[in-house]
Amino acid sequence: MALKTFVKVGNITNLSDARYCAGMGVDLLGFSVVEGQPQFIESKLFQEIRGWVTGPSVVAEIYGLQHASDLDKILENYKPDYLEMGAAELALFDSLPLPFIVSVRENDELPNLPLHPSYVIQHGQNVNPSAYPTLLVLESKEDLNVLLDNPHVKGVVLNGTAEIKPGLKDFEAMADILEQLEVD
Description:
Elements (H helix, E strand, L loop, with lengths): L5 E5 L4 H10 L3 E5 L10 H10 L4 E5 L9 H8 L3 E5 H4 L9 E5 L14 E4 L11 E4 L6 H5 L4 E7 L12 H10 L3
Parallel strand pairs: 1-2, 1-8, 2-3, 3-4, 4-5, 5-6, 6-7, 7-8
């Protein structure tokens, strides 16, 4: 299945979301890997999910990371393809071993970056043109056409949701958006 634009789905905590997104042709699957952060996923569960999913690249969402030295354990336990962080986490590093994504809030200026991100995630509809490919956090399917028409937007970011119970999941909101993105 092909999508009209680049799609990252973050905060994945269950196999149902990961498999659904992979089947729909999502490009990146993000997992919160810093203990104590919302939607944190243990490395054992992450490895089980990763064993069932092929296709999308894996993003280690390292929001809340306190020390650069903690990254080594994350890389060892999760083996991600990308790292994703905010400006606070990025400030911890002089260099990074993987391609990375930096997230900025609406109307925030992109910090002066010593390192060059693969993508910049922007929250809100006010897109600040960036020298880097921009992914926009999508709040609803109503925003989709406006975003797709914006030449500064490379793709969209969605978030996974909790399962009702293992194997039982409501995909309606995510499905509405991904189905609109399917290539006819």
